[in-house]
Amino acid sequence: MKETLIFLKKTKLFKDLTIEEIEKSLKDLNAKKQTFEKNNLVYELGKPIDRIGLVISGNANVIKEDFWGNRTILTQLNPGNIFGEVMNFQKNKNPNINVEISKKSEILFFDFKKIFDSKEILESYNKKLILNMFSIVTKKSILLTEKIEHITKKSVREKIFSYLSTCAFKYESNSFKINFNRQELADYLSIERTALSRELSKMQEENLINFKNNQFTLIKKY
Fold first, then answer.
1. Is 109 within 8 Å of 52 (Cβ atoms)?
2. For the chain, which terminal residue's Cβ has fewer other Cβ atoms within 10 angstroms, N or C?
3. What SS3 state is found at 199?
């Protein structure tokens, strides 16, 4: 438990909280830790999302699936990331959003709504949690805007360029490693995997990029 508390102190949600405040907040929010194997689904489709998850270890993807079973990756989750925070405050059913585990993971679940039921809402740790949550939701809104910018490009190449360019600015380098495998990247950019692989190969042949597995280098021509 001590290791978990130390880890949580480094996350964005529990930023600026003391170990004692984190421990108290977990108790107040009925926090419980659960282990998931690869390809497990976290939420039960058709039922409301009544708890927020925080990734302790492993990786997962937030998946949206349409009526015909076509999948789109909305975002990727890494240790320290939270999910379900928006749906947790809604009472409607969740028919097509899920979280799929891509690597054996430990997830900490809690009911964030309970923070507003507390008679001690004015306590410093509650105010810190609320402000941290607001900051996280704001950042996710920015990331969603970036995704929309990628997938609304007209061609496969333009989508790839848009995504890789964003990565280069994010890592402040023309050489970086992405966290998506090929299928996940295709799902994220809403294109077929074969089309993605074919276009990446063409871009490498044209000396626009170099890549090996998930390591990419962007080449600027002068």
1. yes
2. C
3. helix
CA distance 103 to 146: 25
CATH topology of domain 153-218: Arc Repressor Mutant, subunit A (1.10.10)
Tell me which residue has tokens 């050489």.
Answer: 175
CATH 1.10.10.10, the chain: domain bounds? 153-218
Instruction: Encode pLDDT of 1-57 as tens digits.
Output: 788 999 999 999 999 999 999 999 899 889 999 999 999 999 877 777 888 999 999
Dist. CA 120–CA 219, nearest whole Å: 55
Q: pTM of the predicted model, to two decimals? A: 0.73
Please report, as a single letter, which amino acid is at residue 221. Answer: K
CA–CA dist 177, 187 (Å, integer): 18
Q: How far is the CA of 111 from the CAs of 27, 143, 187, in angstroms?
A: 10, 24, 30
Kindly report, residue by residue over 41-82, the tens digit of the pLDDT: 998 777 778 889 999 999 999 988 776 777 888 888 999 999
pLDDT of residue 136: 92
Superfamily of domain 2-149 in the CATH hierarchy? Jelly Rolls (2.60.120.10)
